[in-house]
């Protein structure tokens, strides 16, 4: 279904590869999803900020590791080298440093840009929304971190996307693990990037990349392989704290203790049913320094989306069931922008909204209920000719009273075509003007669904419309 | 005041020239303005769409006349030549043609990009929002056009920015006027661009540009000068229809008849008090084909903004009092994107939101009332040590019940610092936990403003919070 629709709405090439328009129906769905997410962010007391779509190129340099090649640059048209933002986290850190802000809880919903291979049927575009929530400030361990996971839990529950899991790990555990497995210090980040591919590649292929491309010893790779197959809860963290190899790393122990603390807070929030401590979770970005997490859909809706992708695009695209949220702690990023290197610890989460949109769209597509794209309460219509002026006068009164109303832009529209328009657009009421009604000082109010008609005096019209449509 | 604040928040150069961040306070104001505008657009039955921030360069080519040099291009990083959108109108026309849409009423609120000389104290940036409302479709003359002006009237009234005027003219009247004044056909557009500068330059300077730079005869310029000094209402349109020179132009007559019709509809909408037929209004863009309009603030708030600009930046910036909305009819634009040249007549209006923001910001600055940046209803606090777990448990219950709540991210925060936070953030209630309250199964509810404290049972807490904060 998605394939056919995509072809229909994009018949000739007038757009950049990997971008799309949102039509009114898609926007109505998008608005609903955004409202759910914003409501959650506001419930947790977040303020919001906005930053420009482009930043100085140097602001983005050295923040994204191997992904930096995907940054869109602007043409040098005089003086400044500019790039489109790649995420909302780096601009946030730049904002904090620039304004010397040491404490803030903010959300930011905006588009970001990546010159990636688009997989549009799976909701992967070169221009896409991110919905970020971050807490900056020097606080006691794991309290804000736990709130971020609570937020993911609330949003995914409320959006009703089916079952999900939130995987949790810690960069310090990964680094400690790399150290005790014999990975040289200067290879931590690149090996970490390879581990990150475990959600899309088999362990065999990941190992091959480590050994053949990254030059890691087979022995070290095998030891990593053992650890990254581990999943559990607080108990796994406790076990690893006793692990003879892992416990040799101070870093790993710090990470493991924090995972224990995190699980304790998550228990108080009653969300541990969905949270898994998973040592294979690595996250691609360079800037994480502590806890990291990622939410994945595990069931029905996700699978159907994957199947659909398989029909439409190449099979490769449907391997991963898809992350719908991710984030972590990045305590060093703000300091990179401060002339004196002052640190502002941060933790945050980004909701993968595009994937959620495509699932919601498929749901809407499958539902018998029509998505309304306007909230119009009434159409001002006429039953006879030459009543344009009377229609305009009445609709002006309605607008001034705050009623959402439409009128057809024709001097003499047919009554039938006015009624048909209402049926198509889902407008529930019609105010019908005719010579007789004007003489009597009334309006014929027609209920579109039932075809019931009643005469209402002009004085009562507005309250009657409100009564019938603002339930 | 603005100057100082600008300097404080941007202490070192981490941002591109002519761009800015919005802080939480500015965002709260922005949200309020957007809500007013969106409410109006929805009242008039508009759907919304979204388009990408960049378009193929060729989509924008040849649409903006002399302003095309201000378009931001992206670097060629493989294949496509892309540009940042310059307005929302051209992408809208591209969208209609691509999807073969012949009827739509849509609004679009998004950022556009112009490599202009920024005048940031006056709210002029290189990245700025546009709020567009457009009606596409083959309809009877001037009905949708009149609705656009009604919308401008409603929005400017509701935003309460002080007195305003909406100037109206028609491209066909301008073209007819140019023809009867002896302007050569191939100079219509460039002379039109010069006339457009009348709101910023004196007639003498405009005339000089016409004669010296554009090569117009002095006689023709003088004749234009007579016409462009004319202002009036329906009566002026009637008089010009009798004008011996103007009436020789079929085009001018068509425009003048439509202005008459427009005024008739505006009378039905009761908005003629603010509308002036002004022959000096030209609008810069190439794509207009019929009626054009522009709203300007005429009083208090606008003047204060101009004065402020004068103190902060160079004097030149404060000459124009500033347009806050503009638009017109563009019947040829969609056809430029259709392979078969099929025309879709359009009329629309764009609200100059950035200027409105800066006025609203100054108002907020001057007001004794504090702008709240969150909607938090309650803080979950503790009076004694070692109650973090109890606080987390309680706030989790509140979040799950839809209450907007915050907790301090410290194991043992001082009660005083918790209360101070509430005063600063404007949080009206505090739920205070202590050993005794926990034993008694109650929460001490404190009203921040009055310092009143009452014990509320845990079972009644949520309804009590709602009762006190959701008035």
Automatic annotation (TrEMBL), chains A, B:
CDD domains: HisRS-like_core, HisRS_anticodon. Residues 18-368 form the Aminoacyl-transfer RNA synthetases class-II family profile domain. GO terms for cellular component: cytosol; mitochondrion. It comes from Astatotilapia calliptera (Eastern happy). Belongs to the class-II aminoacyl-tRNA synthetase family. Keywords: Aminoacyl-tRNA synthetase, ATP-binding, Ligase, Nucleotide-binding, Protein biosynthesis. It is an enzyme of class 6 (ligase). NCBIfam families: hisS (TIGR00442). It catalyses: tRNA(His) + L-histidine + ATP = L-histidyl-tRNA(His) + AMP + diphosphate + H(+). PROSITE patterns: AA_TRNA_LIGASE_II. InterPro entries: aa-tRNA-synth_II (IPR006195), aa-tRNA-synth_II/BPL/LPL (IPR045864), Anticodon-bd (IPR004154), Anticodon-bd_dom_sf (IPR036621), His-tRNA-ligase (IPR015807), HisRS-like_core (IPR041715), HisRS/HisZ (IPR004516), HisRS_anticodon (IPR033656). GO terms for biological process: histidyl-tRNA aminoacylation; mitochondrial translation. Its EC number is 6.1.1.21. The keyword Cytoplasm does not apply. SUPFAM superfamilies: Class II aaRS ABD-related, Class II aaRS and biotin synthetases. Pfam families: HGTP_anticodon, tRNA-synt_His. L-histidine binds at residues 87-89, 114, 130, 134, 283, 287-288. GO terms for molecular function: ATP binding; histidine-tRNA ligase activity; identical protein binding; RNA binding. This is histidine--tRNA ligase. Gene3D superfamilies: Anticodon-binding domain, Bira Bifunctional Protein, Domain 2.
